[in-house]
UniProtKB/TrEMBL annotation:
<dbReference type="Pfam" id="PF11175">
    <property type="entry name" value="DUF2961"/>
</dbReference>
<protein>
    <recommendedName>
        <fullName>DUF2961 domain-containing protein</fullName>
    </recommendedName>
</protein>
<dbReference type="InterPro" id="IPR021345">
    <property type="entry name" value="DUF2961"/>
</dbReference>
Length: 371
């Protein structure tokens, strides 16, 4: 294990450079504007080197701009992006929201999480390109950015290329019902990863370094009895890396519903509703314990024990690997990336009304069972 400061004193044959949105006239209009539907190259770099830090802040009249603006990165002249994600989710901001977030490789800083920072190192041997696409129906009024990078004489062959992939699924419950904590019937067994929510499916040689996990739970029941499962190099289930529950994978315990932010793991956002209703953002970065693969990796997690819950799950997986990489599935259109509506107090009261009718009406408290 090495301290993050272990190599800070090393003198290297590198040149530090920056591409930013500064006003080229010497004025104070230090931003670019992006029309609706426009794709813009923020950086196009030749030669070898590594991106060391990225900072964005954005002003838009579109309330969903963080889901509607897409970030892509390309290394070494490739045609398929190695990074493709809505810009908010990439930096650890779920559902188009703005909130503060602290971790070692990613941060969303004040005011109110609007300063988006990335410290994942991103080496390249023959050029790098970073673009954004405004899939909003309105222009981006102001996009400010820094892209800090180093020029190197050459790149070490042992360095993988940085990748990040966004996925989203509104999961299907088991046909027997949403039976978390055996509240409806004895729980089922699930001796496979079939039906799991997919975090990553990659081919090549490299190592997985973490995930931002955004879950919207439409029930006050705990959503996180799902085991994490990693199948490495085509190995069969259960594989050599099999977990015990959602909060366990995120290094917490006992169904948390509170914010906690460690450099490597935590909960950056919870709804503070009742039970576990609503939106939670958990994160886990494998800085000290990357998950290595020589041929392939399939990372997934159950949505409730035995995949018994309907959840709206979005993730951004982060990893390094050799190129070429397996091309990503087509990114859903912007409207298909928007979050589900929040469950309201009125919705819950309607549930109670339907339950009362199913019980025949009368003086009912709420915990009665059918006879």
């Amino acid at each position: 294990m090495h301290s993050p400061l272990a190599n800070i004193a090393q003198i290297r044959p590198a040149r530090s450079k920056r591409i930013s949105s500064y006003d080229r006239t010497g004025g104070n209009a230090d931003r670019i504007q992006i029309a609706a539907g426009e794709r813009v190259d923020l950086a196009s770099i030749e030669g070898a080197g590594a991106i060391k830090h990225i900072w964005f802040t954005i002003a838009s009249r579109d309330p969903m701009y963080r889901r509607n603006i897409v970030l892509r990165m390309y290394w070494d002249g490739e045609d398929n992006p190695s990074v493709e994600s809505p810009v908010g989710d990439f930096f650890g901001q779920g559902w188009g929201l703005e909130y503060n977030f602290v971790s070692l490789p990613l941060a969303a800083s004040p005011r109110s999480g609007r300063g988006l920072n990335c410290y994942f190192p991103m080496p390249f041997g023959n050029g790098a390109r970073i673009e954004v696409e405004n899939q909003s129906p309105t222009p981006v009024d102001a996009f400010y950015f820094y892209i800090d990078y180093e020029e190197w004489p050459e790149v070490d062959d042992s360095l993988g290329r940085f990748h990040a992939w966004w996925n989203r699924e509104i999961t299907d419950p088991d046909p027997s019902g949403e039976n978390e904590w055996s509240c409806l019937a004895p729980e089922l067994k699930h001796p496979s990863d079939e039906g799991n929510y997919l975090i990553l499916d990659a081919e090549g040689r490299g190592h997985y370094v973490g995930v931002n996990y955004f879950v919207d739970c439409p029930s006050p029941m705990w959503y996180g009895e799902g085991d994490d499962m990693f199948l490495i190099d085509g190995e069969p289930w259960p594989g050599t890396l099999h977990g015990t529950g959602t909060e366990d994978y995120f290094c917490t315990s006992w169904s948390p519903a509170e914010e906690y932010q460690h450099p490597y793991f935590g909960y950056a956002h919870v709804d503070h509703s009742f039970g576990w209703l609503g939106r939670a953002h958990a994160y886990r970065f494998h800085i000290e314990d990357p998950i290595h693969f020589q041929e392939s990796i399939r990372a997934s997690i159950e949505h409730g024990h035995a995949n018994n819950l309907t959840l709206d799950i979005c993730t951004v997986a982060y990893w390094y690997q050799t190129e070429p990489h397996k091309p990503f599935p087509q990114l859903p259109p912007s409207e298909a990336r928007h979050p589900m509506p929040a469950i309201s107090v009125t919705d819950v009261h309607r549930w109670r009304h339907a339950w009362r009718q199913s019980m025949g009406g009368g003086k009912l408290w709420g915990n009665e069972r059918p006879s």
